[in-house]
Amino acid sequence: MTESSRPPVLVTGGAGYIGSHTVAALRRAGRRVVVLDTLERGRRDAVVDAELVVGDVADRALVTELVERHGIREVVHFAAYKSVPESMDEPGMYFTNNVAGSIALVEAARDAGVTALVFSSSCSVVGNPPTVPVDEEAPIAPESVYAETKAMVERVLDWTGRTSDLQSVTLRYFNAAGAAMDGTLGEDWSSTTNLVPLVMRATITGSPTLQVYGTDYPTRDGTCIRDYIHVDDLARAHVLALDHLADGGATTVVNVGTGVGSTVREVLAATEAVAGRPVPHEEVGRRPGDPAATWASNDRARELLGFTPEHDLDDIIRSAWEWFSSHADQPA
User: Fold this and answer.
1) 146, 173, 217, 228: which one is catalytic?
2) pLDDT tens digits, one per residue of 296-313
3) Can you count the helices (H) and strands (E) in the chain?
């Protein structure tokens, strides 16, 4: 691998699930990487060969020192809490960590000369979308504290781009899932509420039984429809977003999904096809606030970043099954 002549990229939260896959994608692209992570919810071994600094994005002196010492001009910002139920129980913790921490990072980075930032946001900022596919002009209507924190940081970055040289691409993820196609990285099922790892845990360990929330939605099989994007594709979108900014791109928001919706029952069927056995599950009532169907419009990602997903639901399920089958000793 030939390293780029561009300065290192600072990746906050790079020891987490999506962050670590993005670090790997940046390294494959020849980029030097410095990871800043508290390791509160990340794993040291997930960083692989990148330099790891254990610390908090809210530590302005530390961020300034890292930027100046390494000559950093680009940041990818993942560091945040991301559990919707937890955010509703601990709103202050989420506003402090996700919003105040991000503001501290942005201001320190801006003042130290950073000119490009890619932000990890979420399609949840639009809440229950009025139409699908969801494009970037959909009204912002968060339905959880977590989603509200992402929306607030989006606004901070918008105004930062208008008032300074620091430009940003906010990537609104749809449902990230799967594991690295080369088998080196994956997700931790003990610290997630996402469907795919919960399906894998139920299928591999038998416990707890998966709960399917709602089977009476106005969809093709009665269960919710979501846009599942492979984590390797999502990681690649961050590299393309940095390239877009390096070429003079201005602050913007970009959806990152596949443009294809899959039902919960289709996720179960895909898993059963790979596993060769049923997914233990029970059907329960709907959860408040769950939209019936949401998937991405990928037009802006394709036109602005040159991004097209390379993997489908079968790739997601197959890679997740291989990862979790070989890491079934992780805590339940």
Assistant:
1) 146
2) 999 999 999 999 999 999
3) 11, 13
